[in-house]
Amino acid sequence: MTISMYSMTVPYYASMLTNLAHVLTKAEAWATERKIDPAVLLNDRLAPDMLAMKRQVQIATDHAKSAAARLGGVENPSFPDTEETFAELHARIAKVREFILNVPQAGFDGAEDRDITLKVGPQEMTFAGVQYLQGYSLPNFYFHMTTAYAILRHNGVPLGKADFFGRG
Question: Are 52 and 147 in contact (CB under 8 A)?
Answer without folding.
Answer: no
